[in-house]
Amino acid sequence: LCSVSLGVVGMTCGSCVQSIEQRIGSLPGVIRIKVSLEQNNATVIFDQSQHSPESLSEAIEDMGFESSLSD
Amino acid sequence: MTQKHEFEVAMTCEGCSGAVTRILNKLEDVKFEIDLPNRLVWIESDRDVAFLTDTLKKCGKEVKYNGAK
Ligand SMILES: [Cu+2]
Ligand SMILES: [Cu+2]
């Protein structure tokens, strides 16, 4: 398993956090996701045979938030 | 023929309306308007309703089609 921290821009409240955690967290190959509104990021633990930092970032972008591969 | 469609999207905050805006901006052939307090989105497009509904659902909120306006 891999862990990555992705930048997420565009969230304004806890319900934004929840919708991202729910939708990304239910993708096959995503083991756990923790989104932080204060830090504008998402920490994702995933199975690298099904996902990459790029594909996860794209999935967040697809939901309408801006996402970047931070650090 | 381009039609104006009305959708109800369960948006609750500016994060939601911002997400819907970015999602729709990625489509090149639509014009749209968002009314956040009334949770309504109007889209002018010749794409079919099923496609537009699926596109709106990407934001993770419930979407209901209210008909052509
Ligand atoms: Cu929000
Ligand atoms: Cu919201």
UniProtKB/TrEMBL annotation, chain B:
> What Gene3D superfamilies does the record point to?
3.30.70.100
Q: Where is the HMA domain?
A: 2-64
Keyword Ion transport on this protein?
yes
UniProt keyword annotation of Lyase present: no
Q: What domain of life is recorded for the organism?
A: Eukaryota
Could you tell me which InterPro entries the record lists for this protein? Copper_transport_ATOX1-like (IPR051881), HMA_dom (IPR006121), HMA_dom_sf (IPR036163)
Q: Its Gene Ontology biological processes?
A: copper ion transport
Q: Which GO terms describe its cellular component?
A: cytosol
Mention any Pfam family matching this sequence.
HMA
PANTHER family reported in the protein's UniProt record: COPPER TRANSPORT PROTEIN ATOX1
Function according to Swiss-Prot or TrEMBL: Binds and deliver cytosolic copper to the copper ATPase proteins. May be important in cellular antioxidant defense.
The family note in this entry says: Belongs to the ATX1 family.
Q: How does it assemble?
A: Homodimer. Interacts with ATP7B. Interacts with ATP7A. Interacts (via dimer form) with SLC31A1 (via C-terminal domain); this interaction improves ATOX1 stability and controls intracellular Cu(I) levels.
Q: What is this protein called?
A: Copper transport protein ATOX1
